Amino acid sequence: MSATVLYDEPGPRARVWIAVGTVVGLGLVGLLIAVAVVRLSSHHQLDRAHWTFVTDPTILRFLAFGLLNTLKVAAVAGALSLTIGCLLAVCRLAPAAVLRVAAATYTHFWLSIPVLLLIYFIGLGLPTMGLDLPVFWFLVLGLTLYNSAVFAEIFRTGVVSLHSGQREAAAALGLGFWQTMRLVLLPQAIRRMVPSLVSQYVVLLKDSSLGFVLPYPELFRRGQTTGQYAQSVLQAYVVVAVVYIAVNASLSYLARRLEARQRRPGARVPAEASIALNPLVVGANLSTPAA
User: Fold this and answer.
1) Backbone angles phi, psi at 134, to 5 degrees
2) Given CA atoms 45, 48, 50, 51 in this order, what sign does their dihedral have?
3) 213-268 pLDDT, tens per residue?
4) Which positions fall inside the ABC transmembrane type-1 domain (predicted)?
5) Do 204 and 160 have their domain in common?
6) How far is residue 192's CA from residue 42's CA, in Å, rounded to a whole number?
7) Domain span at residue 105?
């Protein structure tokens, strides 16, 4: 059994309580759904007339382009956040105090600001300072600033969770800090933190709906427009929610598959990391007299 990074494996008694809690939770959710269906039906919100808009090809294309805009924002902001977050994590662990302080200040500052306010201030503040960009980039900037700080903490947690012998082996091979990070620690940390990284990317994807304050024509805003046009606001929000659930569930499934693949006994270790982890290589290096 492989140990997890963020928590200990539950024991037999804890697993029983988890199973009981799961059953009770599912029962409560089912009860709430049943009550909601009854209430909606009593107010005629489930009538067929309120759902005919989902069969209109024009409306479906309209919503599909909203989903495409959402995915574009999530893809660009996610790529930037991952890159910046990885760099910040390395800087927070660097020997240079200046890099550590600068990275820590950046991380704590952006984490202390709510994402909605951050996006709102960027969308309103930057144009007043003469920076006129498409709304797309205002939303990407807001999401990147916040999520890069979150990804930095995830990467840093992954690196810190590795056994200290990894660093000692790399030092024995004569690798410096940056080489150790690039060749030994980061590849293993990323493999460990894949589920957390994908989970945060799901959060980023959902946060893209905050672009309605700019406004940016993402899925949520187009769903809002569709509801007003078809006079079925609640139904339009339900359709948007189902789309978000489908996309996020697909990403979560991908995260579980990746985690299961990494835990396989035959999972590959990066070539550079395997060299540093090989005790024979380390022993040979230690026994070799210095030139």
Assistant:
1) -60, 150
2) positive
3) 888 888 998 998 998 888 888 888 889 999 998 988 888 888 777 777 766 655 55
4) 67-255
5) yes
6) 50
7) 50-287
Q: Which residue in the block uniquely carries the two structure tokens 């498409």? A: 134
Residue 174 and residue 66 share a domain: yes
In terms of domains, do 8 and 56 share one? no
Tokens of 166: 């990894």
How big is the chain by its Cα radius of gyration, in Å? 24
Which amino acid appears at position 171 of this protein?
A
Number of other CB atoms surrounding residue 177 within 10 Å: 16
Contacts (Cβ under 8 Å, ≥6 apart) of 60: 54
Residues in the chain, how many? 291
Find the farthest-apart pair of alpha carbons in the chain and give their distance in angstroms, rounded: 87
- Report how far residue 27's alpha carbon sits from residue 31's, in angstroms, rounded to the nearest whole number: 6
Is residue 5 a contact partner of residue 158, using CB atoms and an 8 Å limit? yes
Is the pTM for the entire model greater than 0.90? no
Task: Select from 125, 111, 210 the least CA-distant residue to 154.
Answer: 111
The answer to whether the CB of 131 falls within 8 A of the CB of 121 is: no
- Cβ–Cβ < 8 Å for 182, 288: no
Tokens coding 144 = 């990147």
Residue 88 near residue 109, CB atoms below 8 Å: no
Rounded CA separation 223/70 (Å): 12
CA distance 291 to 278: 23
Domain boundary residue, one of 46, 63, 78: 46
Q: Which tens digits make up the pLDDT trace of 74-87?
A: 999 999 999 999 99
